[in-house]
Write the structure tokens for this entry.
Amino acid sequence: MVLLVQFVGALYGLLAIVFGAFGAHALQKSFTAELLKSFETGVKYQMYHALLLLVIGFNFNLETTLEKSMAYCFMVGTFLFSFSIYGLTLSASKGRKLKFLGPVTPLGGLLLAFGWGLLLYLFIKNVV
């Protein structure tokens, strides 16, 4: 599990750099300012959680159900949140917005929030 979390963290970090550069250079011509801002939000959240996955991958054994659930929330939540934003913004720039992705973004955000809640619970559990 630890290697999976580290791998996904490194992959998300790599893709965040690639997508960020793509957004900064190639998409400026075809995106409105609003679409570009949304795309950048997806990249930022992806990078934040890539770094977080690396941190938890190197600092937790990820053996308990609680730790595994936290890691899955971050991995799946990041994918759903950021990649749905990419799909929404790219399709909107082409005039064919993929509306089915609309509910996916908040679901990803909910998983991310739940992952942070589990991380907080882990810290509290170890202190109390």
